[in-house]
Write a structure and sequence with these properties.
The chain has about 350 residues and is an alpha/beta fold. The protein has 2 domains: about 240 residues, Rossmann fold, CATH 3.40.50.1460; about 70 residues. The chain is about 40% helix and about 15% strand. It is built from 7 helices and 11 strands. A 6-stranded mixed beta sheet has the order 2-1-3-7-8-10, sandwiched between helices. Strands 4-5-6 form a 3-stranded antiparallel beta sheet. Strands 9-11 form a two-stranded antiparallel ribbon. Helix 1 links the parallel strand 1 and strand 2. The chain is elongated, with a radius of gyration of 24 Å.
Length: about 350
């Protein structure tokens, strides 16, 4: 798996429903607004529609920002579940609440009340919609506090696993998640960075299993809370997203959105800079070999007259110019990438 994209991941028959609650009306959330969530939804939506990553048709990528009732969360999921023939990806970002009785996860909307799960959507409704969808593979990504509780499966938890489903949660069970100080929330920002930069050493198409393992390593290296993944069936091995690391891919979408906030450096610039950097790096061995061979020839020619010296100087100058160009490309890619990640 991974060298080709299977029919189950065909973007023409696949759907994504991206839901984010960034604004809350109740005073209990006066200090709990989540402006980064709006950026999460728009950024991920653009990336999933990008033909160089997945290429979902615009009509198959639904963005729901600041729902004001449980039905505004679950209805778009049910509608996509009724139409999908490929992969169904559901993403939620916002505050999560826990039941004090059985530790079940609840997803909040703009009118939810902090500490009152009854005012939010029971995650079991989402699980039910996924269970009865026509999708051969289902992906649930949760960026909220206590997201790991969605992975608690088994009789003791009163929940039933859904075969063909992959759940990627921002946290371990019963654990809050940091909000983040940049343009995106912490977990989604790390996920976007991984999708944007790719995974070294992996195949042309990335699976959710590969992404989750790389995400765990990336977040551990940054001292961030560990995400949690649960795969039922072999959906975790489904080749889904193009790996931007190993292939010179520049977005075909003419204008990527800019993310407001501390990280507002223009993600598209970062995408192009990092892609150019990788292309430049791969060209280095050939350039060095050609330059070395050329200099040897020039040295031999120099023994026969000034023409050889001129050639040697020209080749050395060309090599120096290329090295400077490579250094500038690497510096730009690293600087912009660091800015957009923060």
């Amino acid at each position: 798996m991974g060298s080709e994209r299977p029919a189950a991941a065909d973007p023409a028959g696949s759907f994504a429903v991206l839901i984010g609650t960034s604004r809350y009306d109740d005073p209990s959330y006066a200090d709990g607004q989540l402006p980064g969530v709006a950026n999460n939804v728009s950024r991920l939506g653009w990336m999933l529609r990008d033909p160089s990553l997945w290429g979902l048709p615009a009509a198959n990528c639904v963005e729901v920002l600041d729902p004001r009732s449980p039905s505004e969360i679950i209805d778009p999921i049910k509608e996509a579940a009724a139409r999908v023939t490929g992969t169904l990806l559901v993403y939620f970002a916002g505050h999560g609440l826990l039941s004090s009785i059985n530790a079940k996860l609840y997803l909040t909307h703009s009118l939810s009340v902090d500490g009152n799960p009854v005012s939010a959507l029971d995650f079991d409704h989402v699980r039910h919609a996924l269970t009865f969808s026509g999708a051969p593979s289902r992906i649930m990504i949760l960026d909220c506090c206590y997201a790991g509780n969605a992975t608690l499966m088994g009789p003791a938890d009163g929940q039933v696993a859904v075969d063909g489903t992959f759940v990627l949660a921002a946290t371990q069970p019963n654990t809050p998640t940091p909000i983040g100080s940049g343009g995106l929330t912490t977990f989604s920002g790390e996920l976007v960075t991984l999708l944007r930069n790719g995974v070294p050493g992996e195949r042309r198409f990335l699976t959710m299993g590969t992404l989750s393992r790389a995400l765990e390593k990336q977040m551990a290296n940054r001292g961030l809370p560990q995400p949690r993944a649960l795969s039922e069936g072999n959906v975790g091995d489904l080749a889904l997203f193009r790996n931007w690391w190993d292939h010179d891919i520049v977005s075909a979408e003419p204008c990527a959105p800019r993310v407001a906030g501390a990280g507002d450096a223009g993600h598209r610039l970062s995408d192009q800079a990092s892609t150019r950097w990788r292309a430049e790096c791969r060209a280095v061995p050939g350039i060095l070999l050609a330059a070395t061979f050329g200099n040897l020839v020039a040295v031999l020619l120099a023994e026969r007259g000034p023409a050889g010296l001129i050639i040697a100087v020209s080749l050395s100058t060309a090599l120096a110019v290329y090295v400077v160009r490579l250094a500038l490309a690497m510096t730009l890619a690293l600087a912009v990438s660091k800015t957009t990640e923060n």
